[in-house]
Design goal:
Structural class: alpha+beta
Shape: elongated
């Protein structure tokens, strides 16, 4: 480990080594000014914030930092809706509503997952001290790193739970008010007014009563341990977790398989003990490059017009000051640690200034005060730009941390590296500063306006920002929290929380009681139940076992009778009877809750299956092709129309449709179709060019021919029809001789078409045959009239007619029976 750390530190360029030495000198100077007695407290109050890493459902966040809140009977609450990257610092209160979850990253390795209906407060938060308060609900605390002497504690109404080793722990408050501590790995120590005791891996500690005086330990079944471990890792690593820890033995064999420092490529560029949260997010949203003069730097995959601190919102994280809450998933580490530099019109995050103990900042920017009151701006700090850690009091006056010399030299710096970089300064209207900011919200920074302005490191040095600060917390969506009784419970800590002077009354406002040192040294009497816990409650907590000697096979009636008997004994001062009665009542409540949950779950499962089946049926019905629906409508309309037609007309229509379908399948090649279309067009044009008188004569002639046809006797009509057929046959033969030779592949199609036409003609009823015969006579008369109008020079048509007449006579003489 030591060699690995040395290798990573060596990757930091010499320029950042100078920064490291400079910061170390500042810290020594600050310690020298404060005195040796204040060395520990000086490091403990260095500003720091945790990150809301993930959210599912509704999660509210509130702050208790105003000294006036300590004079109230109950804490003052103003719950805002939390988002990813929201800071959680000293005085923050987080509440997870029903059917919701939340995850908080305290560092790169220390993490907490909060379950539904859970309250968590931050009492102390610094590099070597994390004190939290759990008043209701439950959570899993993944402590991946714990330095010697470092305190990581969860205070509860019954006592404090201190994690003595890195490990995985579950802490919760059950329905009866007892505290349950499950140790999946590591060692936990519980401290209350009745003393202190330890619980090891694979054990469940249940303690309650007066300040944790009643405590007993049970063994956790390996299946229960695997269930809790698997549930946590499935939530924290939803895309990479493979379910291996469902087998509790595999977790014990390698509990650090998913350690981000082992699996994330971004952590190899940061010292192991930097403990910066959110670095693993950089793997999926950018690339690491070796930038000359700056070392390994990270470049986000963004557009060419992108700039840092331009997609998110400003949050008043008092007393730390204005904090940038990025809307970008990766937007934690690059906006609170390191610096930004623009190289070849691309932005790079330079983490070189993250030393072994990184310095957290609410926002590494300088603010710009313009001479126009309706605009404010900010620009990201670059390598070499100073930042002095500070808190703000209720009047927004900065309280700097460091020596007077260091503060004086660096708080008034106005020469910012990125100030003159094109597009680096983000400018918005004042009224938009308290809203969500997007690239579309930002205004173009006027170069002349920038030239007349100067950047400053303190945001409240800009008068307009100092006016807007109180309004920031009143903007944004709110969350309604109604768990006032649970939120007002007192909690017990092992030590007094350490906080900066500006928030010194937070402990009193949040009803924190510390265990006196003398009482904490007493040994807590922890009874062994002698049983193994094999069941989990609906809220994720194990079902606590009763103490050794109690009958686990009691029926409901037996349990009720036993509780009644114990109640009379407890009324007489028998503490053991009182203890057993409470445990039986606890077991009864848990069983009733489990039964209700099982019944509700069964009903919900059945309803869900019905809904899914109905949804699948609706989806299947909706996915039928629209063509089928249209075809059904067309068929319905056709049947309706057919029903309304006379029988004779229906028969004719069916025969005609059948002939048309067959003819369409046997259509001649495109070349022959084109020739037929041209011939028909020529005939229509010739007919249109006839003189009006001739057209009138032709119409009269056609009318006379139709009348003569109707007056002819049937025998004569049959003879005339026979002659017309022969004439049509001769005309087709003559037309075929005039057309170019038909390709071999076209002949079968023509024959099939002719055959279909003859078959359709034979199937026509007499009435329709008579109509067709009249049409043919009319077409013949039109062609004859058109031929008579052609000039004498065109002898080919008369010649064709003579040829056709000759063929006709020959056929009449040779085939009289046709």
């Amino acid at each position: 480990m030591h060699n690995n750390l040395v290798d990573k530190v060596r990757r930091v360029r010499s320029s950042f080594a100078v920064v490291l030495l400079f910061i170390a000198a500042v810290c020594l100077a600050s310690a020298g000014c404060s005195g040796a007695a204040d060395k520990a407290s000086a490091s403990d109050v260095m500003p720091l914030a945790a990150r809301v890493d993930r959210l599912d459902g509704e999660v509210g966040i509130d702050r208790q930092t105003d000294p006036q809140d300590s004079n109230q009977d109950q804490p003052k609450s103003d719950w805002a809706k939390a988002t990813v990257n929201t800071p959680v610092s000293v005085g923050s209160r987080v509440y997870v509503k029903d059917k919701s979850h939340a995850a908080i990253a305290f560092s790169g390795r220390n993490y907490a997952r909060l379950n539904p209906q859970t309250s968590l407060d931050v009492l102390s938060l610094s590099q070597r001290r994390t004190q939290l308060a759990l008043r209701d609900g439950s959570g899993i605390f993944d402590v991946g790193a714990l330095a010697p002497g470092e305190l990581f504690e969860v205070a509860t109404p019954n006592g404090a739970v201190d994690f003595q080793q890195p490990g995985l722990y579950q802490v919760g408050i059950d329905d009866r008010g007892s505290t349950l501590v499950s140790v999946l790995s590591g060692i936990a120590q519980v401290i209350g007014l009745a003393g202190s005791g330890q619980v090891g891996r694979g054990q469940l500690l249940t303690f309650g009563g007066d300040y944790g005086s009643e405590a007993y330990v049970s063994q956790l079944d390996s299946g229960v341990c695997g269930n809790i471990t698997n549930d946590y890792y499935s939530y924290r690593y939803p895309t990479t977790y493979d379910g291996r820890y469902a087998d509790y033995q595999r977790y014990q064999d390698d509990p650090y398989y998913y350690d981000p420092y082992r699996r994330s490529s971004s952590y190899q560029y940061i010292p192991d003990d930097a403990e910066v949260a959110g670095l693993e997010d950089l793997d999926d949203y950018g690339d690491w490059e070796d930038v000359p003069g700056h070392g390994h730097s990270w470049c986000p995959r963004v557009s060419s017009t992108w700039a840092p601190y331009r997609d998110g919102a400003w949050y008043n994280d008092q007393p730390l000051g204005l904090t940038w809450v990025s809307s970008e998933r990766w937007g934690w580490a690059p906006y609170h640690y390191g610096r930004w530099v623009n190289v070849n019109q691309r932005w790079y995050w330079v983490p070189g200034e993250i030393v072994s103990r990184p310095l957290y900042s609410p926002a590494l920017v300088a603010f710009v005060a313009f001479d126009q009151d309706d605009r404010v701006g900010w620009v990201p700090l670059g390598p070499g730009d100073p930042y002095v850690p500070r808190y703000y009091d209720r009047n927004y006056q900065p309280q700097y941390i460091g020596s007077t010399t260091y503060v004086t030299q660096n708080v008034n710096v106005t020469n910012i590296v990125n100030y003159n970089v094109p597009g680096a300064v983000t400018v918005v209207r004042s009224r938009e500063f308290t809203q969500v900011i997007t690239p579309g919200t930002a205004l173009t920074a006027d170069s002349a306006l920038l030239g007349r302005s100067r950047p400053v490191l303190d945001p409240y040095a800009v008068p307009r920002l100092k006016e807007l600060a109180p309004e920031i917390r009143s903007h944004g969506p709110k969350v309604q929290i109604t768990a006032d009784q649970a939120l007002s419970r007192s909690v017990v800590t092992s030590q007094d929380p350490i906080a900066p002077a500006v928030v010194a009354n937070t402990a009193k406002a949040l009803k924190v009681k510390s265990v006196p040192e003398a009482e904490g040294r007493h040994k807590l009497q922890i009874n062994n139940s002698g049983q193994t816990v094999t069941a989990i409650q609906p809220n994720g907590l194990p079902v606590p076992a009763v103490q050794k000697g109690q009958n686990q096979t009691m029926t409901v009636q037996e349990r009720d009778a036993r509780i009644t008997a114990l109640a009379s004994q407890a009324a007489q001062g028998d503490k053991s009877a009182k203890r057993e009665m409470r445990q039986l009542q606890d077991q009864q409540r848990v069983q009733e809750k489990v039964d209700r949950h099982a019944a509700q779950q069964g009903t919900a499962t059945q309803q869900q299956e019905q809904k899914q089946q109905q949804k699948a049926e609706r989806k299947a019905a909706q996915q039928q092709p629209a063509v089928q629906q249209q075809q059904k409508q067309e068929q319905k309309a056709a049947r309706k129309a057919a029903q309304q037609q006379p029988p004779v007309q229906q028969q004719q229509q069916k025969q005609q449709q059948k002939a048309e379908r067959k003819a369409a399948q046997q259509q001649p090649p495109p070349v022959q179709q084109q020739q037929q279309k041209q011939q028909q067009k020529a005939e229509r044009r010739a007919a249109q060019q006839q003189p009006p008188v001739q057209q009138q004569q032709q119409k009269q002639q056609q009318k006379a021919e139709r009348k003569a046809v109707q007056q002819e006797p049937p025998v004569k009509q049959q003879q005339q029809q026979q002659q017309q057929k022969q004439q049509q046959k001769a005309e087709r033969k003559a037309a075929a001789q005039q057309q170019p030779p038909v390709q071999p592949q076209q002949q079968p199609q023509q024959k099939q078409q002719q055959k279909a036409e003859r078959k359709a003609a034979q199937q026509q009823p007499p009435v329709q045959q008579q109509q067709q015969q009249q049409q043919k006579q009319q077409q013949k008369a039109e062609r004859k009239a058109a031929q008579q109008q052609q000039p004498p020079a065109q002898t080919s048509p008369p010649k064709a007619d003579r040829k056709a007449e000759k063929a006709k006579n020959k056929n009449n003489n040779g085939s009289p029976n046709q």
